[in-house]
Each structure stands twice: as C-alpha cells, then as structure tokens.
User: What shape does this take?
Amino acid sequence: MKINKTLLPAEKLKPLFENPLNLKFGKNFTDYMFTMIYDESKGWHSPEIKPYQSLVLDPAALVFHYGQEIFEGQKAYKSKENEILLFRPDENAKRFNYSMKRMFMPEIPVEDFLYYEGELLKLEERWIPNQKGTSLYIRPTAIATEPGLGVKPSRQYLFFIIMCPVGPYFSSGFNPVSLWVSREYSRAAEGGTGDAKTGGNYGASLAATGAALKKGYNQVLWLDSKEHRYIEEVGAMNIFFIIDNKLVTPPLTSTILPGITRKSVLEIAPDLGIEPVERAIAIEEVVEGIESGKVAEVFAAGTAAIICPVGKMNYNEKEYIINNNETGPWAHKLFDTLTGIQYGELEDKYGWVHKVI
Ligand SMILES: *Cc1c(COP(=O)(O)O)cnc(C)c1O
Assistant: This one.
C-alpha cells in the first residue's frame, strides 16, 4: 500500500545526538513515526509516515483497560560500507503476528511489515549511529483503540513504529550481571501469554524486579510457575548455561518467549564447536553445578544486550558466584560472532543479515 508521507522542512528536524556512545536506552526518538489503522470494514489501511508526535486516544480505548497490546524489539545497524542492516527481520515480523494472534488482534502480512519498516528506516538513515555497539532500536507496536468498557476484542487498532538511537548495552565494559532467583513470583503460566510480546507480561514482572533490586541484584531469574523449580528466563532475555562443555537452554514452551537471539545462538553453536542442548534445567542442578564447577558459565541472550554474562545468583538467601564473577569464553565468543555478523564484519553464511535498499 502507498504510504502517505508528511515531511518536515530541514530546519524543523531535531539535532542529532552528540556522542552515540552515551545514548540512554529508549529516551531519544527520531523525527518520524509510521502509523496505520485498522477497522472491520477496511482492514489495515491508511499507512502514514509523519513527524513523531503524541497519540490522541479516547480514554475508554480498550488498550488502557484490558491491555490488548503487542510489540516487537529490533535493531538496525550501520555497516562500514554505510549500508543499513537488519538482523533476521522476517523473524520479528513473524513473531509480531504470532503475538497478534495470541492477543486476538488482526495480523499484518510479513512483506507489508518489512516494507513499512524499511521505508521508515531509509527516511531516518541519519539517525543510525555507526560506532560498533551502537544501533537504531526499532519498536513496532499495535494497540486496541476502540472506545468501550465491555471486556471484548476491539474492532479498531493502531499499528505504529517508533525508533531510537541507542548506545552500547555495556557502557562500562562487558561485565557480568547478578540475578535473584524468584520463588514467590512467576512470569508466565502454561497456556497464558508468556510466549507473546504483550505489555501485560512486563507490567506483571515489575514487582519481582523491584524486589530483586532491593536485595541488591540486577535482574530476576524466573522459575516455572507450577513447581518453582525449572529455569525459564532472565528478566526479558533467554538464558543459557555451559554445563559439561555443552550449551544448555530450556526448551520453548508456552511460558518462554521465543527469542531470535536464542534461536541464533543455538543455530551457530555447532559451527563454533559446542553442542546445543534444549532440556529442562532444575535450579538445584544449577546451584550444585556452580559449586562443583560443572556449570562453567551462565549468560542471557536478547536483542538489547545480544549476550549478557551472569556472575552471581542468589537462591534461597545464598549467593553463588559463577566463573569468579567474570565474563567467560563462550559468552565472549558468542557475543563477538553475533555482533560481527550483525555489523556486516563477519561472513553471513546463514543469510541472517537483511540490507535495507
Ligand atoms: C524479547 C524477549 C526476549 C528476547 O528476544 P530476542 O528476539 O532475542 O530479542 C526474551 N525474553 C523475553 C521475555 C522477551 O520479551
């Protein structure tokens, strides 16, 4: 569909960031946004690129009351040759639609999603920082806009894409984070929405994160909701363990968000010389393995950090130190390989990198 564009005169454009290495996550937005609306008679229609601006919504819009909302998180990278690169964007578009379906929202064809995102990126190219570690974060979002207080699926929706330049996740070096194992809270239950990127999951996680921070830990390690025993995720990232020289992660269930970084780590592992294993991992196995040395490394994986090493874990009021609280060799190797591919510095033999042209 043809995009209606409202462009600003050059003197109205925002000044660019000064030092992209100092950019805070999700605070500075680009000049433009993409929007498209849905109603029952017309389907998705009126795609628009316009100046970044506030939304005007009825206070009874269903998104405010019953949380019918979904989103994605992606990054655009600038290569040394000045190309705009996306990492597996088709996977984001597919997951976007998976989340849409789960929240009973109308899907957007993958090709359309990629086309609209690409058009916005080309217009906003100057906002993509080019130092290694920096990128332009992309936040596609869909919300229910029909006014009404009955609990029912909305008949009107808004899809928008906003973007913000971001600095490196690890601004003070690639240092491990600490985790607090939550036995009181759980993130998701079987048959719930844990495998969809829907806002409610994150709102529901904040009390646990607050408790972890209060105890002096950076993030929450989530266990399953039934037995509070099996490892699920870290904060909003997937988790990996190096156990007996194998790369081990929990299998995907309805309670785990299927991360694209997770999938890439599993696909790349055999080529880097380590066997990937997807199996249930009990918290006792982890803490005993840390003490005995069987668990050599722990790290998380997600678009924001790519790889996030874990140095400490508190379970049942006891602290366990992993790999001397240092970043291990596998975390380093996976981080270097994935970021190398993402910035177009390493050969992309998997066909993961998509050039926006
Ligand atoms: C987004 C997200 C991830 C990571 O997914 P990526 O596609 O790798 O960015 C993992 N867990 C949760 C809960 C998430 O929201």
